[in-house]
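ok trying this again, last paste got cut off
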Amino acid sequence: MGLGRLDLVGKLYQPAVWPKVATAARGATPDAPVVVDLDPTTFCDLACPECISGKLLNQGRLTPARLAELADEIVAMGVDAVILIGGGEPLAHRGTRRALATLGAGGVAIGVVTNGTLIGQNLDELSRYAYYVRVSVDAASTDTYGRFRPDRQGRSVFDRVIGNMRAFAARKKGALGYSFLVMTREDGTSNHHEVLAAAELAKDIGCDYFEVKAMFDDEHHIVGVADAILESVESQLAMARKLEGDDFSIIDSSTLAALRAGAGRDQPKDYATCKVANLRTLITPSGVYICPYHRGNPKARLGDAVTDSLPVIWRDADRAVIDPRTDCTFHCARHDSNLELDRIEAGKGRELLAADDDLFL
């Protein structure tokens, strides 16, 4: 079928999710989301200066018992996919291994976004159950990694992360991704010069894809870069694409595409409700939120997964608390999906795909 990993519009037309998509297109809420983003913990073993969740870190976690219950609730509800992610490091929670096993055995597709330091302790479950594991590396050398992704003692753990990725690559059933966030500081310090070297390392490790992203500010607006830096990144990516083959691809994120197109800081929206919010949600220790862009935003909090069951929160949530016209002026990766849901409602959608490929809408 050939759906791209970031073809979020095309993914709407997969047979397994179509009944929920059709319900969301009408502005209604299906019995369960297609995708749940799940933050088991806010704790992290790294201290990245540019972390977009920095203000939310180290403020609590779900108890192992509650995380296990949530995994059971997600399976029972009929959620299609879960992304273990976080303000914190999801693999740092001692209950994550059990959650991975419960979700995987329950037929839920699992994605994991991690800093890679703790892959080794979770290798059995990740190798067996993960549809994909994406590691945020943002460097190709020990020194650059230490400047942008130091641990809490200020050290570089680059070699450990790369070693963990190699171990996973040797055993994985799903995909392994190498994520590179282009960062530039006011003093001129940057990691952009290592894009090509990182892509080469990703292929050597055995990664399935290499993804380059642009940086966000604290409110999720894309941070612009100097023309010379963008030109350097583009030149390196052109060379990196020569590495592509059946088992390795280079992926441009929507944020990088926006930079390339000269898009401004804002992304105007003319719809008052987010229909994608009927297909996805975010669970964190501090609450259930309408989406990851609004992690920690009290206005976007839909409930408390510590005290209430997920089915009740999902059923009773008021998703109209967020108005994309005023609350989502940043570049949203699912803006085009919202526009497509409107087209589906108007009877102008596409034909369904023949089979399912990637349920991570």
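PB: full thing came through this time. The CA atoms of residues 266 and 330 lie 5 Å apart.
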